[in-house]
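Summary for the lay section of the report: proteins are chains of building blocks that fold into shapes. Here we show the chain for Class I SAM-dependent methyltransferase and then a coded description of the shape we predicted for it.
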Amino acid sequence: MDKNYWIDYYKKNKAPKQPSLFAMNIINILQPQKKLLELGCGNGRDSIFFANKGILVTGIDQAESSIRKLNEEHTDITFLLDDFVNTNLFNENNYDYIYSRFSMHSISLEDEKKLLNKAYKSLKNDGKIFIEARSIKDDFYGLGEKIGKNEYIYEKHYRRFIEINETEKYMKEIGYKIELCVEDKGFAVYKNQDPVVIRIIASK
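The coded shape description reads as follows.
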């Protein structure tokens, strides 16, 4: 995880404040009073959006200044300073929903597999996981210094680009039931950027 990059990014208050397209796309699937864990909540924009719709949200991130500000401004939501791969929040059968937007590609493939296993155990029966992440078809793929399989450091920022078939296969092996697995543009438009991203929705 490129921890220092994200700490600096959120200190500069660069991130959009409105909910992501992904959050708005899935909101009709979510039910009020159900428990949701957001992995890598950043400035909290999606966590806040979900909470305002009656979802019981816990958001975790390693950006200390961001978590501190969120706790000061949103006392009705649980925001925790933590490493979302190694957090002890993954209690068995604890969450109705686990949400990971643009955080899966910030960790290694080894950590992705560890995370997906922990998340599966932590979901209640019929609970769902929602994933959006950068694809190997992204325009940034191949730029910068290659440090591993599909891993690059470009402009001092680590990214791992995800192979959709690899992640889908591994999730099925764990036991997830894949409900949606798509790869396209138009999902994460930001200013003049429209990257190819992956969206996966799966249930336990």
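Put simply, here is one thing we learned. The mean pLDDT is 92.
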